[in-house]
Design a protein that fits this description.
This protein is mostly helical and 514 residues long. Helices cover 76% and strands 2% of the residues.
């Protein structure tokens, strides 16, 4: 075997697996003692003297290899997917606490008008978050694809392009949100007594959009690279700061709605800065420097081709939910507060599905990059089972004791009373939407983003909005019927998404059958 300069390579077979070339790395023995300081020739001898089961190989500042937890193309499929998805779940749970804590603190220390203001303002900020997460998922898929192909150069180009594009995008989005806050809130029929406070919340959060973009871009890159743990730690830090800031600024200093907004953007800013500093000091493949922040044309086009359809579909879904907000706001503050609380539980109940979907996107991208589609089919089944079991717990809670769910956010008796029928109806969506989210995660990982875009747009614009219009026209006072709309829409979408996914599975099998 030839040792080219300071680089060394080793190949081995174990349990029928294909050989892997390992470059620019260092080998640890079974006692985890680094030997990277030895000359290349002796490292090669040491690595080949060990049994395959004893080798633990890491890349120092490079792409993940076989026994690295970042590699999703090896190991037990179910265990690898779930262990990768759990940090996603925790991170998404913690991120969901942002809006939930804001609403809870406002409910504890302020009046129903403030609750309605934060509830409506959150609908606007969720549009922003949906646009950002849709595009960043494109970054996850892009990085995951080249990580699976073991192409370090293109992986770095993908990371630099993603970060640079989002830096520019965040500035444009910030200007639009701040400038259009009043027209958007007017279109949502925000209750008069809550309008000023809602605008205050939206404008304050608007100034923090660059930090939201920065954190989500870094997290998407790490997840595409196969690392779902560090994004979890970064968002956990932000959540703790956010909770402390909410209680301090609103509960102690009495800043009200502005206090929870300031606490949110300050926490995200600290989290983003800590993530950059931590990664630069570690052995991450990419260094966050101005020189590395550049756009590669080919990677930018690929990012746009994958990310824009995802972002557009998220936007259409959020617009359809904004229509629901406008319909409910017309019913008064109590109804608006109740549906606002329900929207928070929607996020938590659907966390398992959204987390598995995001994990499946990265898992699928890496395994298709490595030409291993069979692993993906097994992963889809395992992910669906896990997500359905978790969603069922929230469904049963909403059916058996909806009062206790609403009571965690507000003590107002009128809000609780009008919210109970809505909770019981909309909770069926916890189960139905699980199929849609998980299968869309798989399809996004395969870059079938045009299908998921048209699917979500059809469900939002051609099914949800017409159904809401019918209820608004003929039974405008029925929150129960309004709550039935979401599960009906998800049920329709689940049928044709399952059919399309089965077709993709069959197409994968065709070459193997020939």
């Amino acid at each position: 075997m030839t040792i080219p300069g300071e680089k060394w390579y080793t190949e081995f077979h174990s349990e029928g697996r294909s050989p892997h070339a390992i470059a620019d790395g260092f080998v640890l023995d079974k006692r985890s003692t680094a030997v990277d300081s030895y000359p290349a020739f002796f490292v090669w001898i040491a690595s080949n003297a060990m049994l395959p089961s004893q080798k633990i190989v890491w890349k120092k500042g490079g792409l993940p290899v076989e026994n690295n937890s970042s590699n999703l193309t090896e190991g037990s499929i179910g265990r690898r997917l779930i262990t990768f998805a759990i940090p996603y779940l925790i991170a998404n749970f913690v991120q969901a606490l942002y809006g939930a804590v804001d609403l809870a603190v406002i409910g504890w220390f302020c009046d129903p008008a403030s609750v309605a203001a934060v509830s409506t303002g959150t609908q606007v900020t969720q549009i922003v978050t949906s646009l950002i997460t849709g595009l960043t998922l494109g970054g996850t898929i892009l990085v995951g694809k080249y990580t699976g192909m073991r192409d370090e150069k293109q992986t770095c180009k993908s990371i630099g392009t993603t970060l640079t594009v989002f830096a520019a995008f965040s500035v444009v989005l910030m200007i639009l949100v701040i400038g259009l806050a009043s027209p958007i809130l007017t279109a949502l029929q925000t209750p008069e007594e809550a309008f000023v406070l809602a605008r205050q919340y939206v404008v304050t959060c608007g100034w923090g959009i660059p930090f939201i973009c920065g954190y989500n871009a870094i997290s998407a890159i790490l997840r595409g690279y196969g690392d779902s743990q560090r994004p979890m730690l970064f968002i956990a830090l932000a959540c703790m700061l956010n909770i402390a800031g909410d209680l301090l600024l609103t509960g102690v200093f009495g800043w009200g709605v502005r206090g929870v907004a300031v606490a949110t953007i300050a926490a995200q800013a600290v989290s983003m800065v800590c993530a950059i500093v931590y990664l630069n000091r570690g052995h991450f493949i990419f260094k966050f420097t101005v020189r590395n922040l550049r756009i590669d044309g080919a990677r930018a086009r690929e990012l746009a081709r994958v990310g824009i359809p995802i972002s557009f579909q998220e936007l259409m879904v959020r617009i359809s939910f904004l229509y629901l907000t406008a319909v409910v706001n017309a019913l008064g503050v109590d109804a608006a507060s109740a549906v606002g609380v329900a929207s928070k539980y929607d996020v938590f109940a659907m966390l398992p599905a959204t987390s598995v979907a995001s994990a499946l996107a990265a898992f699928t991208a890496q395994n298709y990059g490595a030409q291993r589609p069979a692993r993906v089919r097994t992963a889809v089944g395992a992910g669906l089972g896990f997500a359905l079991a978790a969603a069922a717990c929230f469904f049963l809670w909403a059916q058996l004791s909806p009062q206790s769910m609403i009571g965690l956010f507000t003590r107002d008796a009128a809000t609780i009373a009008v919210g109970v029928p809505f909770f019981r109806a909309c909770s069926f969506d916890y189960l139905m939407v699980t199929f849609v989210f998980c299968l869309n995660g798989y399809l996004n990982g395969r870059s079938k983003t045009l299908f998921t875009m048209f699917s979500c747009c059809f469900g939002a614009l051609c099914v949800r909005i017409p159904l809401l219009y019918l209820v608004q026209t003929y039974r405008p006072d029925s929150l129960f019927l309004l709550g039935c709309v979401a599960p009906l829409v998800s049920g329709v979408m689940a049928v044709y998404t399952i059919a399309y996914t089965v077709r993709q599975f069959r197409l994968d099998l065709r070459p193997a059958l020939c």
